[in-house]
Amino acid sequence: MDVIFVLPCFYSPDSENSTGGTISNYILVNIIAKHLPVKVIVPEGFCQLDEKLHSNVSILEVKISDFRLKMPNIIRYKELGDELSRHLEMNYGKVYAFFCGATNSISSKFLKNKNTYVLLLVRAYDDFLYGEWSPIKKSVKSGLKYVSDFGVTKKCFSEADAIVTNSNWMVGCIKRAFPKSPEASVLYPPIDVKRNSVPTSRQDRTVGVVVRGDGTDKGISLVRELANLNREVIFQVYGNFDLKKSKVESLDNVLFKGWQPREIMYEESALFLVPSKWPEPFGRTSVEAQLAGLPVLVSGSGGLPETVLDDYFVVSCYLDWNKKLDEIFKNYSKWEQFVKLNRNVLDDKFSLTAHEKRILTILRSL
Q1: Least confident range of 38-52, 190-204, 259-273
Q2: Cα-flanking dihedrals φ and ψ of residue 240, to 5°?
């Protein structure tokens, strides 16, 4: 039995191009490779590896023309599907074929194939036609490309052998978007950040937050507002944040740190915020920060409430952010101790062992 991942990109967790989804994919590949040979089919130039990649993993980078990269997904990634077809022609055993996000639509070619189990990894809203977060809302151009994929994608979701997603929130979203789809299985992302017992390089009143792009969806405007209200607190903004595209004015107590290794972010911060305006499908940063021993505050949308130790850390009302921030810093030792004493709950829920057990159960059920 072989396992093949057909992915739009494949980045190691320490790559500057990595996201929560790509980190989860990389770890998942490594976990499955402990039990079965894994091949990753990925566009050329969209792959960055590290020494942690399991020796049972092989990589096939496929050249895709610039012209095709501008086309709808089912055309853009056609060559990736062709490579999977060649593999199936040369091998007679069963294959678990994983597709993710932008490559989900090309799985249509392999539905009902007697030698292929089609599994869709749904980590975000790439395939969704509804909601403020769907691709169709971004621009007319992306909307037209997306609609051209949707009929095929709908078929894929209806006929896939399994759908795997990253939160209970997403299970409900998938069922609403694709009513005829099989019940999605929750596979919580494994968290691989090491515990910090005593952070060594942080200041007492420092807040960390990760943003990308112009920061709008990640709540950068709220961060700026909180910084203005709390001038004695240092707000450290991490990630590939494009300050030029953002309309947020800088303040003396807001530091733009750029991309940093995850362990460094948590060593430098006393509190982490995940103030996303959009409904995050999961929220890896929240779990990582708590496992590193830090209190967190997350918005009450999407899958974020599933990532915290206590509902206290969920901020459902915009006006409550400053209140909760003040409460945590006034009783910081209490909340820090609470996180450190209870983070074993997160260890059990988001550990590599739990992830491995769950994915093997899903594969064996097919």
Answers
A1: 190-204
A2: -80, 70
CA dihedral 110, 158, 72, 130 (to 10 degrees): -160
- Residue 215, both tokens: 């920061």
Tokens 């005829």 belong to residue: 180
Instruction: Please name the residues in contact with 300: beta carbons below 8 A apart, sequence gap of 6 or more.
Output: 314, 315, 316
> Is it the case that residue 136 has pLDDT exceeding 50?
no
What does pTM read for this prediction? 0.89
Quick check: helix, strand or coil at residue 257?
strand
Q: Are 81 and 60 in contact (CB under 8 A)?
A: no
Angle made by CA atoms 343, 348, 306, in degrees to the nearest 5: 70
Residue 295: how many CB atoms within 10 A of its CB? 26
CA neighbours closer than 13 Å in the CB half-sphere of residue 170: 27
Instruction: List, in order, residues 6 or more apart from 27 with CB less than 8 Å away.
Output: 13, 189, 190, 192, 352, 355
pLDDT tens track for 89-103: 887 788 999 999 889
Cα–Cα distance, 40 to 43 (Å, whole number): 10
Enumerate residues 6+ apart whose C-beta is below 8 A from 87.
2, 4, 39, 95
Q: Which residues is 343 bridged to in the sheet?
A: none
Which residue bears the tokens 């961060």?
223
Report pLDDT digits (tens) over 303-335. Answer: 999 999 999 999 998 889 999 999 999 999 999
Higher pLDDT pick, 299 / 216: 299
Q: How confident is the model at residue 95, as a pLDDT?
A: 95
Which pLDDT belongs to residue 241?
82
What residues contact residue 82 under an 8 Å CB cut-off, 6+ apart? none
Amino acid at site 228: N
Helices (H), the chain: 20-33, 66-69, 73-76, 78-90, 140-159, 168-177, 220-229, 262-268, 284-291, 320-330, 332-342, 344-350, 352-364
**Per-residue pLDDT at 234 exceeds 80:** yes
- Once rounded to an integer, what is the mean pLDDT over residues 14-36? 94
87 φ, ψ (degrees, to nearest 5): -65, -45
